[in-house]
UniProtKB/TrEMBL annotation:
Organism: Marinomonas gallaica
SMART domains: HAMP (SM00304), HATPase_c (SM00387), HisKA (SM00388)
Entry's EC annotation: 2.7.13.3
Pfam families in UniProt: HAMP, HATPase_c, HisKA, sCache_3_3
Xref: PROSITE patterns: HAMP, HIS_KIN
Primary location: membrane
Presence of the UniProt keyword Cytoplasm in the record: no
First-level EC class: transferase
Gene that specifies this protein: zraS_1
GO CC term (a single one): plasma membrane
Residue intervals of the Histidine kinase domain: 454-665
Known catalytic reactions: ATP + protein L-histidine = ADP + protein N-phospho-L-histidine
Protein name: histidine kinase
Length: 666
């Protein structure tokens, strides 16, 4: 009793505690989960917006760099305007080269070439300078700056040093990128009358141009733009190859990741579709919040990409730091609420525990009442009602006990009278049930006997005619009959014999007492193989595969033809329950206690549980075309062989029949 009371007290306290803390336990994790999802969603969106903004700034910085180079060229051309006019007139190649080098150094360019209106270089009167879509507009008097891709040969014609600088070995590959991305500049040259008489063509090679990408990075990711430990990077791609970047090399952090490629997904979206790409990406050796946009050349083709991105890990560290603080706050709040809830639950559960104790003692027959509690709440009111109820229970208990004694005496008298009559009635009912079962069985056997006699009369005569004609056919064929023909004829004769045997078995099933038969030890495996020969054509027609797993070493005590009849019946029943491309497995092996076990398993539709106890009853069949005699005959034949048969089935998974044969007559 004490243990039960202790369990109730503990259970009550826990229930009160759970009821108090359940809203908190339900709401706070939800709040934390929503905060986490909101932070992830909004924070990630903010990071992508920042990456998009950074890319826009990098784009503007890149355009400003192009315009700055063009302005420097224009200023240098204006400063040396008279010398340029003279060079376009008549001068020596050496002086023109000196002039071009002066312009290149003053404007901070990689090369400068003086072209006439035909596009030929003035220094050697050769027209090998690469043709550019911007050249016609320059000769119309418009200064231009555009991105263009020069081949290694074109760079070498301009300056062999440029071709060497443009060469970038590919990472994890034996090939290298030899083309060059240039900021191609054109400054028209006018004479004293304002007519365009030539142009200055200049360029800045982007391959390996770290000063430009570092300048853009410093513009985009200035002080305070990233959290502590944050790293911002800018990269210029030629197609999908990094030709200028400040991303560290994967194998050597002090080097830059020139010659590495961007992912296929980014390549397809940016260069293939011409769209910006915004997402987290694994850049060389770490995760970055990345933004890519295509780089368009002077002819409007997408020839590369501009990238701006920053390291993701500092933002994740900050996010997880604040999430950890939120979890600690949740833990502190939960502990505080738990302490308050425990104290409140204890103040409520104590009087209720006292009431439980009094109830237990009253149940044991003791007279108890509750004391007066120093409170004015519902618990005091409950105690008063409880005491009133105990008083009423005492009064009603005495009245009920008196009535119960009188009722028990009358029941004992009536019970003694009815007991004798009940025993007689049960005996009559049992006798009636046995008689009814015997009548039903005899009726079935009588009907079966009459049916079998008619079938035997109608079938035995045609089968005798078939056998006679088959013997006559074999005699007439004589030596002309092939072995295959003789085998088929013999198979027909054997099957006709089996028909006659089946008719005889039906007659045996109809007899109330089986006749005495003579059995012998046989090779069970050989009977199974012969059965396979008889049913294989039908199974092949239905698309059902029959597998034999014959491991029995002991002989079985049975009659081979009757056993074959049982096997054919069980295999064809399995085939009828199996769809096309199903499988039937027949296994034999030695079992314990000197038995030989045979198993027939299929993966068909299975047998409903309520039918398992009736499948061996005569005339019971779930098939519209079946007679319900096959399994009954098989059961009767196996019983005559002192064999045992059982079945196990799962609806929708198949059935398995187990047969145990003795090795000698028992």
């Amino acid at each position: 009793m004490l243990e039960r009371w202790s369990k109730r007290r503990t259970s009550l306290r826990y229930r009160l505690l759970v009821l108090t803390l359940f809203p908190l336990l339900l709401v706070l994790p939800g709040v934390i989960g929503l905060a986490y999802l909101w932070s992830q969603e909004v924070g990630y969106r903010q990071l992508l917006m920042k990456a998009n903004t950074d890319l826009a700034v990098a784009h503007e910085a890149f355009l400003n760099s192009q315009q700055s180079y063009l302005m420097n060229l224009s200023l240098a051309a204006s400063h040396h305007h008279r010398a340029i006019l003279q060079a376009l007139a008549i001068t020596t190649p050496a002086s023109i080269k000196t002039l071009e080098d002066t312009l290149k150094n003053e404007a901070g360019l990689d090369f400068v070439r003086l072209l006439d209106l035909s596009g030929c270089e003035q220094r050697n009167n050769q027209c090998q300078y690469p043709n550019s879509p911007s050249m016609p507009q320059a000769f119309k008097g418009q200064p231009l700056s555009a991105i263009e891709i020069f081949s290694a040969r074109q760079l070498s014609n301009i300056d062999p040093i440029l071709a060497q600088r443009a060469r970038i070995p590919m990472v994890d590959s034996d090939i290298s990128e030899q083309r060059g991305m240039l900021i191609h500049l054109f400054e028209p040259i006018r004479d004293d009358h304002g007519e365009v008489i030539g142009a200055l063509a200049a360029g800045v090679l982007m391959n390996g141009n770290f000063a430009l990408v570092d300048q853009i990075r410093n513009t985009v990711y200035g002080p305070g733009s990233l959290p502590e430990g944050g790293i911002g990077t800018v990269t210029l791609f030629l197609d999908d190859v990094r030709i200028s970047t400040n991303v560290p090399h994967p194998n050597s952090p002090e080097r830059r990741a020139l010659g590495t490629k961007v992912s296929t997904e980014v390549h397809q979206q940016v260069l293939g579709q011409g769209q910006r790409w915004l997402d987290r990406a694994f850049v060389v050796n770490d995760w970055y919040i990345s933004a890519y946009e295509p780089v368009i050349d002077a002819s409007g083709k997408r020839v590369g990409m501009l990238y701006a991105g920053f390291l993701e890990s500092p933002f994740l560290d900050s996010f997880y730091y604040w999430l950890e603080l939120l979890l600690w706050l949740f833990a502190v709040v939960l502990i505080g609420c738990a302490i308050i809830a425990v104290r409140g639950a204890r103040s409520i559960s104590k009087p209720l525990e006292h009431m439980t104790e009094v109830m237990d003692r009253v149940r044991e027959g003791q007279h108890q009442t509750l004391p007066h509690y120093q409170s004015s709440d519902e618990i005091q009111e409950l105690a008063l009602h409880f005491n009133a109820m105990l008083s009423q229970l005492d009064t009603q208990h005495h009245a009920i006990q008196s009535a119960a004694d009188q009722f028990e005496e009358k029941v004992n008298q009536r019970t003694a009278q009815l007991k004798h009559r009940t025993d007689e009635l049960q005996q009559h009912i049992a006798l009636l049930n046995r008689t009814r079962e015997q009548l039903i069985e005899q009726g079935k056997l009588a009907a079966l006997g009459e049916l079998t006699a008619g079938i035997a009369h109608e079938i035995n005569n045609p089968t005798a005619v078939i056998l006679g004609y088959m013997d006559l056919l074999l005699d007439e064929l004589g030596d002309q009959a092939t072995p295959e023909m003789r085998h088929d004829a013999e198979l027909i004769i054997a099957q006709v014999d089996r028909i006659r045997t089946i008719i005889n078995d039906l007659l045996k099933l109809a007899r109330p007492v089986p006749e005495t038969l003579t059995y012998q030890t046989i090779d069970l495996n050989e009977v199974i193989r012969k059965t396979q020969t008889l049913v294989k054509h039908e199974l092949q027609r239905r698309g059902i595969h029959l597998t034999l797993d014959l491991n029995a070493q002991r002989p079985a005590y049975a009659d081979a033809p009757q056993l074959q009849q049982v096997l054919i019946n069980l295999v064809m029943n399995a085939a009828n329950a199996t769809e096309e491309k199903g499988e039937i497995i027949v296994r034999s092996h030695d079992s314990a206690h000197g038995w030989v076990k045979l198993t027939i398993r299929d993966n068909g539709s299975g047998i409903e549980p309520q039918h398992l106890n009736r499948i061996f009853d005569p005339f019971f069949s779930t098939s519209h075309s079946g007679t319900g005699l096959g399994l009954a005959i098989s059961h009767r034949l196996l019983s005559q062989m002192n064999a045992q048969i059982k079945v196990r089935s799962r609806l929708g998974h198949g059935s398995v029949f187990f047969i145990w044969f003795s090795t000698d007559k028992q």
